[in-house]
């Protein structure tokens, strides 16, 4: 048996077709998808009108049902044919006809055709009852003529950002669609294959940039469907308790497709981790199924996982050959983990050639990873497993698929550290009776053991600057270390000389530092290795040591959490990315950035203002306005970005460029413009701002009066509202935040306000992930952030706890 051709890897630019029942959300998703991938949205109705010169309703009236039917299908086929690349195509009612469905099936050979699946109750609530029953019945056909599936999860059960509601009740509530957009854009990144590359290019040290199998240590949280269906825990409680989730299907309710699709969607949304999708052949405690019963069902379920675009498909290579071949043909961009489980007594010992043969066979099938687990009765010492791994390394040349191999017994996985990658783990509150691997260890425990066994080292992390004694970072970071089983420490060190900072960084146990003023800019010339974001902004706020043995980034990334002399230091800027994350999360689809139209406003001209401008640029905004009390400084910042943007050839507004004689000559491009006075009207010809970021202190600093910035009322007229991000949190309710709450309550409820604690928590989360390479316990860090701040307000808690050097 050898690998079969992968039938579902398409040209990354191939147009993506959306099919599904009326009310499934195709139009909204199409719109979001087109913006995300920067593609053209083609809708069936619009295309019909373009080709025939009249709407479908008019055509039907004028030409009757038969001619309309024929015309409709012709238009449909031309729509597909003429838009093979670069589009998102939204299908309407025509996809219900057989001829159109044949055309879609044909299209599936070259393009992704995504069936949009929405809960029946949701669709029924939107449509007339009789309509709904009929439509849902024929909707099943859509599944048959598609090759992907997106489960459009209802948003009402999830938390909203801010408290905004739409002014116009006929429009969807903007914040309601935020999760859906996040889910759908990730899904598109996965099926077009751009996800991992994008993350790597964006930030090679980010958690998303390195897939779990390439991390130095990684853990797979095992979650069984039977458990998820019954548990009384919230899915959110599993956050950051593994590097990926192994979702195990171990029961087959009558509506298994619905149940499984929904569960995958929920896991994605709530945990944001890659999914390993596994269909278990013989679950513990379940009736044994005959091969003719189980093979077709399981084969369909494996295909469902691949249609849902899971990151990994776990495939048992001891199963029926046609089931294996079907899964391999349908693989698409999911990675396949080929498994050999030896579950009973008499499993061949690790030095038996059988295992090496199995490895070779899995490799020849095209498996991306190979997993071997063996039931052991104490007959196989740990060294046997180790020498088997060495044997694989020595006999099979690179590139060879990563290997996961361990022994397990009735008591569970023998030791938690047998494999470096994808070690099976459980949640501490989980009972795992049903799991034949009887997981004994949690992520925290397993990861902690790496330190106890000196494979990793306890390190010291810092926030440093001239005024950091009240920083909330130590509380948040230390809580996150404790949660993840890391013996690291994080402290605030007040210092303001580069010499002292260098001394801190040169220690063998230095893990990384968050920088505050005056270091963010001053350190730039000292750092040879910086992210391109930090270079563009001209400031660094995170420094980490590079301890890789080679110059490869992966090597450096995987040397985090280890002590020793650093070869170099890497500087990055998470100020911009945190602001970016907060804006992206809060911006409603109606205010989605349109480069030529959307306006952004930044208040201030310091380091944070630079980061805010950069965040707006990265969001695609090309009309950025800067206001600062000292106009000259605003001009400098604007100049910095205009020069940078010119070098990058970013599209933006133009203004006449003065020639040597002062006369107009040609055009210069401008991405940033300065607003000189608050009393000025909003600049003519530009939309009112929908993204506003305030980067000025709300308390008096160094004797200078607080900025006390509030928006001029004339600038607040965006009919679709927008987002205000306030960076200050002393006090939390700054004059701007108070003004926006009142404005939202009384005038336009579509504004979302993000307060300073949300942003500072996001900064700490991103810094944690960058410095440790591990997923941050976000909810915990946010909670600790608020709690610590409240304690500080009351004058209690640890308060000003930092060292002064
Ligand atoms: O602005 C901040 C906040 C911070 O100073 C803190 O105290 O957590 C840490 C800095 O790196 C970051 O840029």
UniProtKB/TrEMBL annotation:
State the superkingdom: Eukaryota
Q: Which GO terms describe its molecular function?
A: 3-dehydroquinate dehydratase activity; 3-phosphoshikimate 1-carboxyvinyltransferase activity; shikimate 3-dehydrogenase (NADP+) activity
Cite a single Pfam family from the UniProt record.
Shikimate_DH
According to the entry, every stretch annotated as the Shikimate dehydrogenase substrate binding N-terminal domain falls at: 463-543
GO BP terms in the entry: chorismate biosynthetic process
Q: Which InterPro entries match?
A: Aldolase_TIM, Aminoacid_DH-like_N_sf, DHquinase_I, NAD(P)-bd_dom_sf, P-loop_NTPase, Shikimate/glucono_kinase, Shikimate_DH-bd_N, Shikm_DH/Glu-tRNA_Rdtase
Cite the Quinate/shikimate 5-dehydrogenase/glutamyl-tRNA reductase domain residue spans from the record. 600-643
Give the UniProt family note: In the N-terminal section; belongs to the shikimate kinase family. In the 2nd section; belongs to the type-I 3-dehydroquinase family.
The name of this protein is: Quinate repressor protein
